[in-house]
Amino acid sequence: MKIVASTDRAFVSALKKVVSRARMQGAAVERTVRTLLQAVERGGDAAVLRYTKQFDKVALKASELKVTSEEIKDAYHRIRKDEGDALRFAAQRIAAFHERQRTKTWMYQDGEATLGQVVTPIDAVGLYVPGGKAVYPSTVLMSAIPAKVAGVSRIVMCTPPQKDGINPYLLVAADIAGVTDIFRVGGVQAVGALAFGTKSIPKVDKIVGPGNIYVATAKRLLYGTVGVDMVAGPSELLVVADGDAKPAHVAADLLCEAEHDEDAQVWLVTTSASLAKNVGRLLEQQLRGLQREKIAAKSVARHSVAFVVTTMDEAIEVANQIAPEHLTLSVDQPFDYLEKIRHAGALFLGRYTPPSVADYIAGPNHVLPTGGTAKFFSALSVLDYLKVSNIVHYTKEELSKVKDHLIRFAHIEGFDAHAKSAQSRFA
What we know:
alpha/beta, 14 strands, Rossmann fold
């Protein structure tokens, strides 16, 4: 882990590099994605099957794209009872949290005018669940349960096919969460199929979920054809720690995020130079023997930085500039700093809140903004699956009270038909 102190010349440039980390999709990636999307729009199932064979090395027929109810039932027999219990426990916690995000239709009277908002769920959503280097039943729960709570009637899930079938944990999680249809298709072809619809895969109104650079680019290019939640990049964790933080805990938390993939990014901001040194040493020790040691080691070697600052206020300001996906506050009184933190996808407060508890069972959503987009994006929530339509109702009497202002406004903007639409009511 590279250590940079605020007194070092390299501090500003090192911080700037992290702050501007958002991956820019190259022209070659975008050209490839556009080509694939156009092929899926024109070719439907045939294109999806062709690319599935080309990229996933799995040959399927159109009739085999959709997972059957028998496969889902069989998946329950392929996992242990205690594993199923863990999935159900997490699902209950996630549902309980997201139930509190519900919002309702409301109206109020302004004179004789009735104003308000009507809240309705999206009809159909598509969940993209990655399936390459790891298996993510937690992402299935985090994506599907808020949709279910919101009242979405059709929840369609796509996940890359495997030669030995879809991982049973994904199927069980999808069943627990109330997913309507599951399709064994991944990559750009899955995103395109969800956006355009094919004979086998229904068109949806919004696509959510993380993916690699090609999936992220596809979502970005399709925004407007369908809704999307966010364009997510590699996983991130920033730990803000004082001198009393336990180096072993900090190192373990950083590795917890680094093991996602080689491009995962982890950072430490601390007021203690000795803590930074100890964390760097322990990272090397704790890496040894991890199941994903090589992946985590590459992540740490490529991206990890420890920033040593003078005060906690400086540490918080650095955190706000970075705007991380996950932010851990390893201090004794974390709530004292809560109002000072402006930008973070999720906050893990105190010494005993490991990132993993939030990833799996705490309840808040773990689909979060990355690459500094926490400055303007939020965590996936029930609100992502709802639409809000404004309500306006005027009586003749109420319209007569405001029509002169309305007409003046129309003339200011040069739209006389706007004025006449109001005047016609009193002709």
